[in-house]
Amino acid sequence: MQRAFRARRIIPLAGEGPSRTARELFSPPRVHDDAVIVTRGGFVEAVEPYGHFRRRAATPLTDMGEVTLVPGLVNAHGHLELAHLTGSTVQGAGFVPWVRSLLPLATHPLTQDALDAAVRQLADCGTAHVGDVGNRATPQVAAALAAADIGATLFCECFGYTLPDPPVSDALWPDSARALPPDVFMRQAALAGHALFSTHPVTLAVAKRWCSRNGRPFSIHLAEHPDEVEFLTTGKGALADMLAVRVLPEGFEAPGVPPVRYAAELGLLDEQTVAVHCTQCTADDAALLAASGTWACLCPRSNAVIGEGAPPVRQLIEAGVGLCCGTDSLASNHDLDLWNEVRTLRDMAALPAAAPLRMATVNGAAALGLAHLGTLEPGRRAAFALLPDDLSRDIPATA
Ligand SMILES: [Zn+2]
User: Which residues belong to any copy of the Amidohydrolase-related domain (predicted)?
Assistant: First the structure.
């Protein structure tokens, strides 16, 4: 059935591909004043002036009022299976104290109430799709997102130095992935590596190869915190002390190179990889990410909560790194409202609001390989979000 949604302003980002350069990210988007989105069967048919639409009186119209509609948000990185751990971790002291406080809690079963509340937060801010990482409660998370009509890339996370036997992709999937309904697995499952310091390099390479062969994105936490850089380059530091107890094999030797370079050497970096955090990226790292087409998924509020520093947003943009954004989990963020990431990115790097808006929509969709999302134009899914007023005011009317 045809339907229509009228709004004071619509910013469809139509015709835009992913924005990787400062010029693309910063350019003022086309703003449609007093316009409608016409949909049929859940897909966009047209975005047009209300005056033009008025002549088709038979189509039911929902007047959304004095609001700005934008494409549905793509939260490119989260962990819904940690939704029950709000406020229970050590914050502000860096990654190692944070993860030490998380480990004993992570085995507590995810409660349905906490999961449902987290999914409501995603829905309330207009999230159309989430890149969710987990390895314990994937079927429960998949069902809750489907019930809320939120799309998901279900990244099943590999962890540890025990090589799968045999070391092939079939052996990598955690039990929670095997428990997914077959059609959900076929459409939505992908593999992720936890991090370069926590996961065997062969496991990472095999997981990445499976994703490439199957047209799926691959995700990994990369260059997240100073401890990671110290551990990979020297084999020492607080992370080494912690990992030595339960994760690292006997005789382990650090690769002796910083994270982004090591990821490149392992063949993990290309246009289908989402490198999450990147707070420790140097100019050389940014050049490597840009040259390989790797997406950097920024989660600045999570970095601030844990105490890891901030991503070098301007440096990444100037190098031409494709940027998207995510909330990370409620174990390291105050909420799952991606508009708060958009505001944080705008403020921390003095960006025009259009730049983080593109990161949260068209770029997130490209990073996760979602051809049906990211913009509002004919053929795309009719998934839209309300742009909060403070951000809308930052985007000028089209001249
Ligand atoms: Zn994460």
Answer: 68-387
Residue 71 neighbours by CB under 8 Å, 6+ apart: 12, 13, 128, 361, 362, 365, 373, 374, 375, 376, 380, 383, 384, 385
Within-domain flag for 372: no
pLDDT digits (tens, 9 = 90+) for 342-397: 999 999 999 999 999 999 999 999 999 999 999 999 999 999 999 999 999 999 99
Report how far ligand 1's centroid is from the alpha carbon of 232 (Å). Answer: 19
Q: Could you give the maximum distance between any two Cα atoms of the chain, in Å?
A: 75
Would you state the pLDDT for residue 118?
98
The residue segments making up the domain with residue 45 are 2-71+379-391
Q: How confident is the model at residue 216 (pLDDT cuts 50, 70, 90)?
A: very high
- What is the distance in A from the centroid of ligand 1 to the CA of 340? 17
Supply the pLDDT for residue 399: 74
User: For the domain that residue 95 is a member of, what is the CATH number?
Assistant: 3.20.20.140
104 alpha carbon – ligand 1 mean position (Å): 17
Do 37 and 44 meet the contact criterion of CB atoms below 8 Å apart?
A: yes
**pLDDT for 302:** 97
Query: 62 alpha carbon to ligand 1 midpoint, in Å?
Result: 38
Q: Compute the mean pLDDT over every residue in the chain, rounded to the nearest whole number.
A: 95
Q: Domain total for the chain?
A: 2
Q: Distance between the two ends of the chain, CA-based, in angstroms?
A: 34
Neighbours of ion ligand 1 (CB under 5 A): 328
